[in-house]
Amino acid sequence: MSRRQWIEARLHAAFAPVHLTVSDESALHAGHAGAASGGGHFRVLIVSDSFAGQDLVARHAAVYAALGDAMRSDIHALALRTLTPEEWRFGQIGR
Question: pTM for this structure?
Answer without folding.
Answer: 0.83
